[in-house]
Amino acid sequence: MEFTTDILELFGAAYMGDFSKYMYQADAYTSVFYVALLLPMAVAFMYYILLDHILLARRGKWMLIGAITAVVSTVVSTLIAHTKVSGYVFMQNIYNADISASDYLSFAFIVLLWTCVFYTVFSIVFKNFSSRCRNIPF
Question: Could you tell me if 36 and 82 are in contact, meaning their C-beta atoms sit under 8 angstroms apart?
Answer without folding.
Answer: no
